[in-house]
Amino acid sequence: MRVSGAVFLAVVSLLVSDVSGWAEPPQVVKIGVLSDMSGPFSDQVGAGSLAAANLAVEDFAKESKGLNVQIVSADHQNKPDLGVSIARRWVEEENVSAIVDLPNSGVALAVAGYLKVRHRAALASSSMTSDLTGSACSPVIVQWVSDTWTHGASMAHALTKNGLDS
What is the domain range of residue 156? Predict the structure, then answer.
């Protein structure tokens, strides 16, 4: 699932929700698109998610009152250790405020754990793991799709509702 303009605006709004209360507003808000650019998920996310994020920045610029939002991107290659390494570099060296996309469950869980400790936001799309809304749930993580529990539970509910309970 690609990052929609409305979702992107919501993330940026949360990041800078009370600019009036800041002694000095940030000059730049950086958002990282951490995706699968070359592997099995690249057709559904990857370059398309990056393009969507850049379009959302263009849309947001019209309403931002001068706030500069920048996008950085990388390919996590579906490796949780590489995803966390990229997230760490972005947060600690490039001052990235949020990371979006995370279409691989292993990468999403690893990066979410790191971002929770660093108090940075994550918007996971297509990761599908119910752990992001269960055991690994955190105030800084949003999962922007259904999850594996939802799929199973909704199917079981529909079947049992129609008498198919054996």
Answer: 24-161
For the chain, the domain total comes to: 1
Look-up of token digits 């199917």: 155
Residues 39-46 have a mean pLDDT of 89
List the CATH number of the domain containing 70: 3.40.50.2300
- Alpha-carbon distance of 166 to 154, in angstroms, equals 16
What are the residues facing 104 on neighbouring strands? none
User: Bigger pLDDT: 124 or 118?
Assistant: 118
Distance between first and last Cα of the chain: 35
- Beta carbons within 10 angstroms of residue 51's beta carbon: 13
User: Does 7 fall in a domain?
Assistant: no
pTM for the complete prediction? 0.77
